[in-house]
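Troubleshooting entry. The earlier prediction with flavin-adenine dinucleotide gave an output that would not parse, so I re-checked the input for stray whitespace and re-submitted. Clean input:
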Amino acid sequence: MKIPEIMNKRMSFSFEVFPPKEDKGVKSLASALDRLYECEPDFISCTCGAGGSNEGRYFEILKMLKDANRCTPLAHFTCIGQTRESVRNKVDRLKEIGITHILALRGDLPEGWDDTRGDFSHANELVSFIKAEYGDDFVVAMAAAPEKHIEAVSFEADIAHLRMKQDAGADFIMTQLCYDIDAYLRWLEMIRAAGITIPVDVGVMPVINKDATLKMTLSTNGCSIPRELAELISRWYNDPDGFRKAGKEYSAKLIQEYINCGIDGLHIYTLNKSNDVRDILRMAGVHAPRKKRPAAVEE
Ligand code: FAD
């Protein structure tokens, strides 16, 4: 079943992984995926590096997900450095692997770049292109930032651009991390008022590691850190184990609160850490993996 169809019936549940650079990382991702499959996700998405970096591994991981046949694989796809021809070549390759779901993104601009240096300046153009070239072969998701994209001059302007992506044919939204649920709800009201009707998959970045939390919130995304999370960071600033324990509890509570809001989809950015993610899901009561395994060592 296509992901938006699931989301129209019940909350979808999914994970994000990234393609490791080293062989060792691929092996441990394969084991992490085995543990994640046990949580029975509807789909698992695979990120892509800016400008096609680490491209070989990207296709390898997507093929691994497809061949495992445990859930739908979804391919992130950016405009960075892409020509029409290169998009065609890569999307053809995804089609050959059997991928049917794509997240069409502009991509994070590499340092020193002020545009995508390609044929597509913004994600709406990529959505239009994929829909025009491939019709119904692909379900196309689009990204959105509930606290406003960092480059947008206003919420109104940002939401108008989201509307352009829906009008270009995007089938559902995948959100940037957002620890402030009130901000998410205000944004949801605004996009619905602007005629954006497609389902919204809420992205949750588990709070497991202090540096990763600070990097993901502040380095590129400009996401706010609510008081409760700020206190947690301060309290466990120099204690990684204490931080991890408190962070998992915080993450489980956040997930429960999002679910209580009646969200269309829950998407966990796993950072390839399956054991911590499974602990958090168990604590949040989202899914108890059926098969019990001894705790595995993560990379
Ligand atoms: P766009 O929709 O193009 O928007 C970017 C900015 O331009 C916004 O400020 C918007 O308001 C404005 N804008 C949009 N359209 C127009 C227009 N037509 N004219 C003028 N202005 C416009 N990055 C990666 O590199 N790899 C990944 O795998 C990846 N995965 C992600 C997964 C999720 C769920 C999310 C939310 C983000 C992900 N990103 C990834 C980050 C994403 O690429 C960045 O947030 C990027 O800065 C914006 O991407 P976008 O698709 O929202 O861009």
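This one parsed fine. The two ends are 33 Å apart (CA to CA).
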